[in-house]
Amino acid sequence: MQAVGTSRSLTLADVTIRLEGRMLLSISATVMPGEVLTVMGPSGSGKSTLLAFAGGFLDPAFDVSGRILIGDRDLTEIAANRRHAGILFQDPLLFPHLSVGGNIVFAIPAAVKGHKKRRELAEEALEQVGLAGFFDRDPETLSGGQKARVALQRVLVSTPEFLLLDEPFSKLDAALRQQMRELVFSKAKAAGLPTILVTHDGADAAAAGGRLIEVGTEEKA
Ligand SMILES: Nc1ncnc2c1ncn2[C@@H]1O[C@H](COP(=O)(O)OP(=O)(O)OP(=O)(O)O)[C@@H](O)[C@H]1O
């Protein structure tokens, strides 16, 4: 199963993030379908908080203004579970109580009915990333790279409308990092998903091939 993608752009409209009265970050950008927008900046400049705002899981400690839209649909007041965001973090965060396949089946939308059909889709998703036959494995027995691929497919089978990537490659060794970059960006592009990538690694930005916005590089009032 491939992520459906909607060929709709993602817009961050005049988003400002403040913490305890201090401006951390301000950004306005439209990310086109299949485009990866990279956001870089110093530690503590609010990059993860920006993704939390976009994903709808912002900590109330932050004072945020601005809006997020997918196409012309305003998501700002929409609950996280209804935003259709696909999110990858540094850690794959696989559910340890589910098998590898169970992790994927869990993410397939409920509209896809039938145990057999759901299992087939999960098996196909695993096969696409070189993990045929891994359905019944315990996630704890997988290597870091294998876990990362399961996490990616778990996101894509959920048919997200956009991707939020928070340093998803930083814990992989150099060779795997390059492979995962290629895999993630090629799938995001193929599915037409607007993607925001937060990273400290310029090589991630180069591989993403899209625009780069640097935040937190100047004093802000
Ligand atoms: N729940 C919270 N309550 C108060 N302050 C917080 C909370 N979460 C994060 N912060 C602070 O908000 C600031 C922005 O954090 P954020 O994680 O968005 O930065 P970042 O740019 O992603 O940093 P890094 O590059 O180190 O991951 C930091 O100073 C952080 O300490």
Q: How would you describe what is shown here?
A:
By secondary structure, the protein is α/β, with parallel strands linked by helices. A hairpin with a 2-residue loop joins β4 (62-70) and β5. The chain has helices at residues 47-55, 100-107, 115-128, 144-157, 174-190, 202-208; strands at residues 10-19, 22-31, 36-40, 62-70, 73-74, 85-88, 162-166, 195-198, 212-214. The chain is globular and about 50 Å long. It has 6 helices and 9 strands. The chain has one domain: P-loop containing nucleotide triphosphate hydrolases (Rossmann fold). The model is unreliable at 1-5 (pLDDT under 50). Strands 6-7-8-3-9 form a 5-stranded parallel sheet, sandwiched between helices. Residues 19, 24, 41, 43-49, 59, 61 line the site of adenosine-5'-triphosphate. This is ATP-binding cassette domain-containing protein.
Secondary-structure class: alpha/beta
Please bin the fraction of helical residues: 25-40%
CATH homologous superfamily (4th level) name? P-loop containing nucleotide triphosphate hydrolases
**SSE topology string:** EEEHEEEHHHEHEHE
Number of helices: 6
Biggest beta sheet summary: 5 strands, parallel
Order of strands, widest sheet: 6-7-8-3-9
Radius of gyration: 17 Å
Count of domain modules: 1
Mean pLDDT: 93
Any ligands, ions or cofactors bound here, and which? adenosine-5'-triphosphate
The CATH topology turns out to be: Rossmann fold
CATH architectural designation: 3-Layer(aba) Sandwich
Proportion in β-strands: 15-25%
Could you tell me how far the N terminus lies from the C terminus, measured between alpha carbons in angstroms? 47 Å
What is the top-level CATH class?
Alpha Beta
Overall strand count: 9
Query: What is the general shape?
Result: globular
Protein name: ATP-binding cassette domain-containing protein
GO molecular function, one term: ATP binding
Domain ABC transporter: 7-221
Keywords: ATP-binding, Nucleotide-binding, Transport
